[in-house]
Specification:
By secondary structure, this protein is of the alpha+beta class. The chain folds into 2 domains: 74 residues, Ubiquitin-like (UB roll), CATH 3.10.20.810; 95 residues, Helix Hairpins, CATH 1.10.287.1080. Helices cover 43% and strands 19% of the residues. It has 6 helices and 6 strands, in the order ββαββββααααα. The strands form 2 sheets. It has a 4-stranded mixed sheet, covered by helices on one side. Strands 3-4 form a two-stranded antiparallel sheet. The protein starts with 16 loop residues before the first strand and ends with a helix. The relative contact order is 0.12. It binds zinc ion.
């Protein structure tokens, strides 16, 4: 696991607090904004779990201590003038106490968030009625069938790229991505693993 260090040069307010922006490392979506202080930051660094300061309760709190929806912190960084902290996290569940994925609603903001949304929808269809959901039917028919679909959709991408409109190509690519996501769901491999491979390649590893 990554060790999470408290950024140096933070400028705390007169009340000892500093705002923390919490970002989902997988989707890039902003999950929540909260206040933190030196003690909460030190606890976050030593435990790897996000801690904050509640201004209403005047108390230190660990995110998820009652709900179980904890935030595993992958990194902490400061902004340009040191008066805000950014926490990149892997959330264990909905970040908002209302049950929403983020405090700014469920809908994905980023394009990667859209993929994460698709992953959640596909996982949810595993228990749906196959007569009512195409995804549920695909999942019920098993890995080999989904793999056959990936092969077919890949061929359709090739044909669209060679001789059809941009709109058709975009549709066929969407079909391919969707069926790849179904294969990931059947192998229970999180999308985050794929995104991590891509990120590592960008970093040249
Ligand atoms: Zn909230």
């Amino acid at each position: 696991m990554t060790t999470v260090a408290v950024p140096e040069g933070l400028v705390f307010g007169a009340d000892g607090l500093i705002p923390a922006v919490v970002q989902d490392r997988g989707s890039g979506d902003v999950l929540m904004v909260a206040y933190t202080n030196a003690e909460a930051l030190a606890l976050t660094a030593s435990t790897g779990q996000a801690h904050f300061w509640s201004r209403s309760r005047k108390a230190l709190w660990r995110k998820g201590e009652t709900s179980g929806n904890t935030l595993a912190v992958a990194s902490m960084r400061r902004d340009c003038d040191g008066d805000a902290v950014l926490l990149a996290v892997d959330p264990a569940g909905p970040a908002c106490h209302t049950g929403s994925r983020t405090c700014f609603g469920d809908e994905a903001v980023t394009l990667a968030g859209g993929l994460a949304e698709l992953e959640r929808v596909i996982a949810g269809r595993a228990t749906a009625d196959p007569s009512e959901s195409y995804t549920a039917r695909l999942l019920a028919r098993g890995l080999d069938h989904a793999l056959k679909k990936v092969g077919e959709e890949a061929t359709e991408v090739v044909l669209a790229a060679k001789g059809e409109s941009d709109e058709r190509l975009a549709e066929e690519c969407a079909d391919l991505v969707y069926h790849l996501m179904v294969v990931l769901a059947q192998r229970r491999l999180p999308l985050a693993r794929v995104l991590e491979v891509l990120a590592a390649r960008r970093r040249g590893r």
